[in-house]
C-alpha cells in the first residue's frame, strides 16, 4: 500500500496537445479515488502517467514517498486494469491470472496457489479452466481484476473498469468492486466519465477539465457544493437548475424569486453584480399553495413530468425560464397546474464569474401563504 503525491505534472503529447497542465494531486494510502471528467479531459493520460506507460513532460510523481517519475512501469509496483481488460485469448483463466507472477519469475507452485487465491476472492474458481472468449463481460472483468491483484501491487489503477458491462451487470460489478477495495484496502485510482459511478464508489473525486482539476472532494461535497459551474453542470443525474440574476438591494432577483444575499458575502457581491443561482431539483419542494417569492420560491406552470422510478422530475415554466423539481412518486401535479418550487434552507448556491461564492440561504425559511408547509 502507498500514498500518491503528484506535483506540477504536465504531459504534452508529440503534436502539442497539453493533456495535463501543471497538475497537483494527493491520494491517501488506502483511498478509493475517482478521476472524473468529460471525454478528452486527460483522465486516462493521468492514470497512464502514474503507471509509467506515458512519460511526464514535467513534474513529479511519488509513490509512498519515493520518486518514480522516471522509472519504467515494471518497477513502480502498480497493477493496472484496462477498459478492454486486455486478457490473453489463447490461455485459460488461471494462466491469465497467474501471468504477472510468471513475469516476476515466481515458482510454479507458488504462482498457481496465489492465482487460485485471487480467483477465489473474485468468485472465479468454477471458471478457471475456460478461455476469455468463453466468459461473460462481467466474468472477464473479474479475471482482469484478479490478474491485477495477484501480484499484490501497492497501487491499483483502473481505467473505466465497468464500461464494457451492460447497465444491470455494471451495478452488480460496482458493488463487488467496492467490496473488494474495502476488503483489500489498496490505494486505488479509477477513471470514469460516469458521475453516478464516481459518486457511488469513491472516497474522494477529482473532477477534471482540460488537463486540470476543477474540484477535489468527497462525493457529498462535490454534489452539494460544486465549486464552479463546470462541476455544477457535470455532477448529478438530474441537472442542477442554473438561473442567472443580478444583485439589487442586497438580494438576487431570479426567475421571479427574491433571494436575500447573506450578510457575510454582501461585500463580495455588491449591487449590480451578475450571478448565477444554482439549486438542485432534489433540494426544491413543490407546492401548489402560493408561496412568497420574497422567501425565495420560484413560481411557474407545470409543463413536463418525467418519471425517474421512485420519484418524478417536474418542470415548471416560470418567468425566468424552466425550473426542475423532484417530487415523490404519487404526488406529481397535473400538467398545467400553477405551482411553486421552494428551496430548502441553505441549498441555493451563488456563482459569480463561474465560481462558487457561497450558500445563498434565504435569511428566513421560505414562507408559504395561507398555511401550507410554512
Ligand atoms: N497518444 C496521444 N497522442 C496525442 N494526443 C493524445 C494521445 N492520447 C491522448 N491524446 C489527447 O490528449 C487529451 C487527453 O486525452 P485522454 O485520453 O487522457 O482523455 P480522457 O479524459 O481519458 O478521455 P476519454 O474519456 O475519451 O478516454 C485529448 O485531447 C486527446 O486527444
Overview of the structural elements:
The structure is a single chain. The protein is α+β, with helices and mostly antiparallel strands. It has two domains: 227 residues, Rossmann fold, CATH 3.40.50.300; 122 residues, Nucleic acid-binding proteins (OB fold (Dihydrolipoamide Acetyltransferase, E2P), Beta Barrel), CATH 2.40.50. 23% of the residues lie in helices and 34% in strands. The strands form four sheets. The protein has a six-stranded mixed sheet with strand order 6-7-8-3-9-10, sandwiched between helices. A six-stranded antiparallel sheet has the order 13-12-11-14-20-21. Helix 2 packs parallel to helix 4 and helix 3 crosses helix 4. The C terminus is likely disordered. The site of adenosine-5'-triphosphate has 13 residues, from helix 1.
Question: Which terms summarize this structure?
Answer:
Rossmann fold; 374 residues; alpha+beta; disordered C terminus
Briefly characterize the structure.
Helices cover 23% and strands 34% of the residues. The chain has 374 residues and is an alpha+beta fold.
> Total number of helical segments?
8
Topology as a string of helices (H) and strands (E) = EEEHEEEHHHEHEHEEHHEEEEEEEEEEE
CATH class of the largest domain: Alpha Beta
* Backbone shape: elongated
Q: Supply the number of structural domains.
A: 2
Helix content: 10-25%
Biggest sheet architecture: 6 strands, mixed
* Poorly predicted spans: 360-374
List of distinct ligands in this structure = adenosine-5'-triphosphate
What structural category do the secondary elements indicate? alpha+beta
User: Whole-number radius of gyration?
Assistant: 25 Å
Q: pLDDT average, as an integer?
A: 88
Protein name: ABC transporter ATP-binding protein
Pfam family, one: OB_MalK
Organism: Actinomadura soli
GO molecular function, one term: ATP binding
